[in-house]
Amino acid sequence: MLRGAPTENSPDRALRVIVNGMICPFCRVDNDKVIDSRTSMDGSAIRRRRECLACKRRYTTYERVEEMALRVVKKDGNLAPFEREKIRRGLEKACWKRPIGAVEIDRTLTSIENEIYSQFDSEIPSSELGAIVMRHLRKLDQIAYVRFASVYREFKDVREFVDELEPMLDEANEGK
Questions:
Q1: What CA–CA distance (Å, rounded) separates 119 from 102?
Q2: pTM (2 decimals)?
């Protein structure tokens, strides 16, 4: 954010830019310093470790390029904003009690998001979004994939569920 602008009294009349720090989540003061900065999430974000100069507590922030406002076209034709956190919650539910850590979920989420933004400009049908998530989940963990598919595909009976599993079972049998 800009706090200062060139004035008549500026020594060199150059644009003076002072970047605001982040507001400390603990004491709510806007006065911090960056201790460490590195790329994160496959290079699509910058992770900054900060220390509040008022309360001396440390916290982490992430900086990422603001993507275009992508909207999801729902089954009924309504539009809803694309929400990264909604996809994260779906992945976390699917991966619940599976040997999949938060880093793997973040990596998968970043891959999903990169694929979406590389293929769609302003709108994505919810069916396409679900298919992309399912494809990534299938690579990550078969049980998580099945959990997600059972909710996403809204199976009406066990036969539909078995039909979804058959291709995975065939692949598993071919590998033996």
A1: 26
A2: 0.60
